Structures are given as C-alpha cells and as structure tokens.
Amino acid sequence: PFLSYDEDAKVATLRVVVFGSDRISGKVARAYSDLRLKESSCPSLTRYFRLQFFYVPVKRSCVAPSTPQMYHHPLPSPGDTPPRAQVGDPSLSGMESSTNDISHYIGLLDPWYERNVLGLMNLPMDVLCQSAKPEAEPQEDAQEQLPILADMILYYCRFATRPVLLQLYQTELTFIGGEKRTEVFIHSLELGHSAATRAIKASGPGSKRLGIDGDREAIPLTLQIAYSKTAASGRSHWNDVEKVCTSVNLSKACRKHEELASKTECLNLTMTEVVKRQNSKSKKSFNQQISVSQIKVDKVQIIGVQSSFAVCLDQDEQKILQSVTRWEL
C-alpha cells in the first residue's frame, strides 16, 4: 500500500491506498481487525494516527498480460508470490478468479466513486499509463507529468471526504480436535466443495494432477443448518434443517439501489443441495439431481453430521481452513 499523512492536522491522518479485488479487501479487513484487537490492549499506532482507507479495484489475470504490469497485491502472505494484477483490462474479464462486488457496493453508496474510481476499470492500460503533456512550454522548464492513473489516485486521496462504512462479519469455527477459532470476513464465505475447489485451483500445476470435479461428482456433506431469515419487520425467524449439500456459500446481499434502503444488513445464503444421488457398483457414484436455493439471512450456524468441511474466507486461497466441524456467524 501507499502511505501518506497530514503533518499540519491536529490529529494526524494516515492514508492507506489499497489495490485489489474482493479477496484483497477481505485481507485488509482481517488485518485491520487484528490491529484493533492489539491496539485495544496496547495502543501505539492509533494513539497518533487516524486511519483512512482508499480502495482502488483491480482485476486479476491468470495469464501474464502483454501490457505493462501495474501493481502487485498488497499485504502478501509469507512465501506468497503476488500474481500479476491490472487496473481494468476488459479482455481479461473471463480469466478473473476474484470478484469486485465491494467496489460496486461502494459505487452504489457514492456516485462520485462510481464515476471517478470504479470507472477506471473500463479504461485500457495504455490510456491509464498515458501522461498529460504540458503545452507551449519549453522542454527544460516542463515538469514531469504523472500518468492518468497516479493522478487520479492522488485526486481521490486529497478530495474524497465522504466515508463509507463496510459491515464486518464475525464467525466462530470449531475444528475436529475441539479447537475454536474466531475469524472475520467482509464479502463472502464458501463452505464445502466450492472452498475445496478454490484450494485445488490455487495449487497451480498441482491442480491438473488433483483434478477438479463439478458439483455432480462432488462428495455430498450432511449438514445441520440453522439460520435466521431476515424479514421486513426486523423480527428474527429461525429455521433448523438437515440438508445433504455439496456447498454452502454466503455473500454480501446489497447489489441494487433498492436494497440499500433496508435497515437490516443481510447476507445471501446459497445452498447447493443433493436431491438424488445415483449409486452404482460398476461406475463412480454421482449426484443425479441438484437443487440450488438462496435465502437472505443475518445469522447462521452449520454443524457437520459426522463429517468435516473446508471453509474459504473472501475468496482468499491463503485463508482456506480445513477439518472444520462447526461454524457460527
């Protein structure tokens, strides 16, 4: 990240500019959550600085682009080789492995952000790298001009005055050995087959050797699912069901302007349920009939019935947790 601060302000402001897709916003959210826990017991950074985060969406490509490389993802994990990242190349839209829903959500809340920051993703790389050349000035007196992208980021950091609050979701996970762990996410959570598939894809060359099965070939999980369904009245309506699923996914629900008016923050719960499974002695068993249902919820609890599952936070391959038997949101 790029860092800067105001020396003349009464309370110094530390600006953190984050480049990335939803997986990076999730990493930053977890880093910020850890920082707040540490600062609550022994304040060091927040005693002197007020933090401001500026988010610039970035598309991630799986293939090395022919255009110049712009930015690596910030905050890489130890030993993690940052993938190539580009700010908006429409030809790479089919190769993205992470969404940009958080930036679109901010754009819904703030039209200025949608026009000036989110709009950068629609510009080709050669335009973003162009510099505005001074006119009618001697060459020796001409000041070096910044590329359009850098100039826009500076403008964003200096003049953006409206803060946007993002909901942070907390989940408690229980592992096979009884160990408990608390994690947070900001955009999405994947459970079961979808999380395992993401882990296999992240293994690089190993993904060809391991193979990636579709939902029909996935081994189903018997899950005890309890969820609080959101209602217009704001009252909680709890449902407790046992489902045989390949995957259970949660994602941020606000995608349209009309959904922003709701007072209750909710998540989309998507269950990929196996209705009928074909068993054969001669052939490999497969899921013959699959049903996908979606419900808006605000609280969820899932328990594996004599089975464990994988959990992935915010599409982050470095944050896939294995051997989970229970989690609660």
UniProtKB/TrEMBL annotation:
GO biological process: G protein-coupled receptor signaling pathway
Cell compartments where the protein resides: Cell membrane; Cytoplasm; Nucleus
MF terms (GO), sorted A to Z: 1-phosphatidylinositol-3-kinase regulator activity; kinase activity
Pfam families in alphabetical order: PI3K_1B_p101
Keywords: Cell membrane, Cytoplasm, Kinase, Membrane, Nucleus, Transferase
Domain of life: Eukaryota
Cellular component annotations (GO), alphabetically ordered: cytoplasm; nucleus; phosphatidylinositol 3-kinase complex, class IB; plasma membrane
Location, primary (coarse class): membrane
Region (Disordered): 73-96
Membrane topology: Peripheral membrane protein
Protein's name in the database: Phosphoinositide 3-kinase regulatory subunit 5
Annotated organism of origin: Drymodes brunneopygia
